[in-house]
From TrEMBL:
Name this protein carries in UniProt: Putative enzyme
Top EC category: hydrolase
One term of GO molecular function: ATP binding
PANTHER family: ENERGY-COUPLING FACTOR TRANSPORTER ATP-BINDING PROTEIN ECFA1, HEAVY METAL TRANSPORTER
Coiled-coil region list: none
Lineage of the organism: unclassified sequences, metagenomes, ecological metagenomes
Organism: anaerobic digester metagenome
Keyword Cell membrane: yes
Keyword entries, A-Z: ATP-binding, Cell membrane, Hydrolase, Membrane, Nucleotide-binding, Translocase, Transport
Assigned protein family: Belongs to the ABC transporter superfamily.
Listed EC numbers: 3.6.3.-
Stretches assigned to the ABC transporter domain: 6-236
Length: 253
């Protein structure tokens, strides 16, 4: 299934003010992989993700989705393949009601009304927000907006799911629900997040970005065991891998 492949080659992006967001990044992600992009604030995680369906264009290097490079000519097909959940839900919710937001993508695919409604209802049900269907986005809490933003992407049934901080603003129930949904999604997942326990639950592979450069790429368990690497990149082990300070107190010198 080559159409599920994501490949970056020597990707560099320089912002208009001259700041380098990504520097010479090369990554290949194949069908069915669940990959975490981790790093401290400002490392370049969001910048990298925004290249995967043409919201940003490389200063140099290339992006390939499936069999074709990402270009002005292929961007429409790429955006059908790559579903993006943005870091800020307000960037994704712009219609009068949540129903309209979730239906927007399927309607733009040219799907018939009946199929659009099926997709909308399925996405809202999976996110547990059917009761918000007729609400305007501005009446929602931060967590409800996050769920609605994810539903807008699920309704598109993408082959590649890209998510930027998907668990931010979710309560514990919503977070568990999100993890369950993502475990059911059997296609390619690329998730940028500070929630390293979510990474440990979902992603077999992790990529660390630090100062715009890829510092590590490998099995998540191996990366989380490398304390020197994590410290160098401003990261800590997931809480689930840390010793309890009460049960295992640090010995006094």
């Amino acid at each position: 299934m080559s159409h599920h492949i994501v490949e970056l080659k020597n990707l560099t992006y320089v912002y208009p003010d001259g700041t380098t967001g990504i520097c010479d990044a090369s990554v290949r992600i194949t069908h069915g992989e669940s990959v975490a992009i981790i790093g401290p604030n400002g490392a370049g995680k969001s910048t990298l993700l925004l290249h995967l369906n043409g919201f940003l264009w490389p200063s140099s290097g290339s992006v390939r989705i499936g069999d074709a490079p990402l270009t002005k000519e292929t961007i429409r097909d790429v955006r059908r393949t790559v579903g993006m959940v943005f870091q800020d839900p307000d960037d994704q919710l712009f219609m009068p009601t949540i129903h309209d937001d979730v239906a927007f993508g399927p309607y733009n695919l040219g799907l018939p009304n009946e199929e659009v409604e099926e997709r909308v209802n399925s996405a809202l049900s999976r996110m547990g927000i059917m009761h918000l269907k007729d609400k305007p986005p501005y009446r929602l809490s931060a967590g409800e907006k996050r769920r609605a933003a994810i539903a807008t992407v699920l309704s598109m049934m993408p082959d590649i799911l890209v998510m930027d901080e998907p668990s931010t603003g979710l309560d514990p129930f919503g977070r568990r629900q999100l993890i369950g949904i993502l475990k059911e999604f059997t296609h390619t997942k690329i998730i940028a997040t500070h929630d390293l326990d979510l990474v440990a639950d979902l992603c077999e592979r992790a990529i660390i970005i630090h100062d715009g450069r890829i510092k590590a790429d490998g099995p998540t368990a191996d990366i989380f065991r490398d304390e020197a690497l994590l410290h160098e990149c401003g990261l800590e082990k997931p809480f689930s891998m840390q010793s309890c300070p009460i049960c295992s107190p640090v010995p006094k010198p």
